[in-house]
Amino acid sequence: MQWEAVIGLEVHVQLATQSKIFSGASTAFGAEPNTQACAVDLGLPGVLPVLNEAAVAMAVQFGLGINAEIPETSIFDRKNYFYPDLPKGYQTSQMYHPIVGPGEVEIALDDGTTKRVRVHHAHLEEDAGKSLHEDFHGMTGIDLNRAGTPLLEIVSEPDMGSAKEAVAYIKALHSIVTYLGISDGNMAEGSMRCDVNVSVRPKGQETLGTRAEIKNVNSFRFVEKAIAYEIERQIELIEDGGKVVQETRLYDPEADETRSMRTKEEANDYRYFPCPDLLPVVLDQAYVEHLRESLPELPAEKRARFENELGLSAYDASILSSTRPMAEYFEAVKDSCNDAKLAANWVQGELAGQLNRENLDIVDSPVSAAQLGGLICRVSDETINGKAAKQVFMALWNGEGATADEIIEAKGLKQVTDTGAIEAMIDQVIADSPVQVAQYVEADEAKRGKMIGYFVGQVMKASRGTANPQQVNALLKQKLDQA
Amino acid sequence: MALEQEDVRRAAHLARLGLNDDEAERYVDDLSRILEMADRLQAVDTQGVAPLAHPLDATQRLRADEVTEANQRERFQRCAPAVENGLYLVPRVVE
Questions:
Q1: Which of A35, A210, A353, B35 is the S-S candidate for A244 at Cβ 3.0 to 4.6 Å?
Q2: Would you say the C-alpha torsion A385, A391, A394, A398 has a positive or negative sign?
């Protein structure tokens, strides 16, 4: 039988505020345990939450970024459950009136096409603390620094049909939130966490199969592997006459499998009710419009512009628009050298390679966009040849000069295009290589093409890489053919 | 709506309250009376009335995103029964 998978995602994005969603405690990552957990975060008696304006603005910006409806009123509810890292006994969340209504996200598929994934809604909520299960004399340690950190939970419709689509969707969300600057998107530090709902059904069937939820999958790669595993598991189970049960599962990256969390059959009963400590949040139209006007160009628009206006390939456009720092760097290089294609080649070639080798992010590149743009100018106006350009690039990388021009001057890398000078070097090389010249003369035309490489190499070496390679080639051929 | 002991025990479990048999019996009665009251409220025709999220006719004020809280861990942890390495210690949680 042919099967198809139906996948929906709940993605928790940690918002990049300075302070918590309901208190003035810091959200900085990596502090000593409990040094950023104030009376409100601890749920001490008598405290009152006050909503952080930046968290509201960021949620609305996200909503505008996915063309979602932004309801005028949103309401906070209490989700009640007991767990030691949730000191109040409830999580403040938005169950019935979320801040962001239905919207959609465009995802880029491997075959170059795009697909729209509907977002059901996105709501604001607070994060819980952390339980440390190492052995504290049979006790569990609790760090509440993370308690109260603002999260935006983005709930998709079950619109994805494969692990690859799910990954493309998370990548699209990742690039939207980082473009907007509303999250650092750092998955390793938990800034984006993902719950995946997976079910399978015979191809063409309308009704959905029973779904399993895989909790807390925290990297693009694990999302893909966890889903692929889960789809296989469910198909095999059904084909063997079994039944998928609705349950929560955990993905174990080491074993590359999902496992049932074996929670008790008792259904969760969160007893949601409106939080009496928080009033309804009402957004006035002017505020939303102001945020709409300040939205940056988003990745999907940027990708289209790079392709259509700058003439980049679909592949280049998608890589260069994938993150905002990458796109900004590329655009700055392009603006300073006025050649989008050369800029794209250098950013993805020499620069990306070197960043990779030294494990650096583009924002930490020792070569600035202006410096790289200046270098590319000298390539396109033929001041230097390609080989010298690589030398100049490395010199910029190593901080040997402030501009490409300075380095070209200091190292004498200016391309030699003076025919007389090149001829003199060629004559010298020919005089120094009688054996090779004799071989060349005796060889037939077909072999000469390869043999000339030796002489080109010698001349380039004599010029310390500065001779114009096309001229060298042409002049050499002329001289050798007369020899 | 009249409650059974089983309903009371389930609610007590969700609220992490330990009840003895006498208390459970008493709450069956008390809570049933509260629910009767709720039933009377349910009977009111509220068609066309928007649900009320808060009794105050006001909207939420927002605060500027600024860190205003200093570290007071020592003070807070003085009233905790057990702490170690800056962590609050609780009976072991088995996942």
A1: A210
A2: negative
**CB within 8 Å: B62 and A51:** yes
- Residue A315 and residue A237 in one domain: no
A468 is a domain residue: yes
Q: Is residue A63 part of a domain?
A: yes
Q: Answer yes or no: are the C-beta atoms of A50 and B61 closer than 8 Å.
A: yes
**Contact check, Cβ <8 Å, A274/B64:** no
* Concatenated DSSP letters of A55-71: HHHHHHHHHHHTT----
CATH of the domain spanning B5-42:
1.10.20
Interchain CB contact of B41 with A (< 8 Å): no
DSSP string, B77-89: HHTSS-EETTEEE
- A174 within a domain of the structure (yes/no): yes
Closest CB from A50, A142, A143 relative to B61? A50
The ipTM (two decimal places) reads 0.86
Q: Are B88 and A282 an interchain contact pair (Cβ–Cβ within 8 Å)?
A: no
Residue numbers of the domain that contains A320: 303-402
- Residues in B closer than 8 angstroms to A25, CB to CB, are 67, 69
Within a domain: A292: no
Q: Name the minimum distance, in Å, from the CA of B25 to any CA of chain A.
A: 23
Chains A and B form CB pairs within 8 A to the count of: 123
The CATH number of the domain holding residue A469 is: 1.10.10.410
Into how many domains does chain A fold? 3
Cβ neighbours of A142 in B, within 8 Å:
87-90
pLDDT tens-place values along chain A, 483 residues long: 899 999 999 999 999 999 999 999 999 998 999 999 999 999 999 999 999 999 999 999 999 999 999 999 999 999 998 889 999 999 999 999 999 999 999 998 888 788 999 999 999 999 999 999 877 888 999 999 999 999 999 999 999 999 999 999 999 999 999 999 999 998 888 899 999 999 999 999 999 999 999 988 888 999 999 999 999 999 999 999 999 998 889 999 888 999 888 654 455 689 899 999 999 999 999 999 999 999 999 998 999 999 999 999 988 998 899 888 999 999 999 999 999 999 999 999 999 999 999 999 999 999 999 999 999 999 998 888 888 899 999 999 999 999 999 999 888 888 888 888 888 888 888 888 888 888 888 888 778 878 888 888 888 888 888 888 888 888 888 888 776
CA distance A212 to A248: 6
Instruction: Report CB contact under 8 Å: B60, A281.
Output: yes
Q: Is A233 exposed, middle or buried (0-12, 13-18, 19+ CB in 10 A)?
A: middle
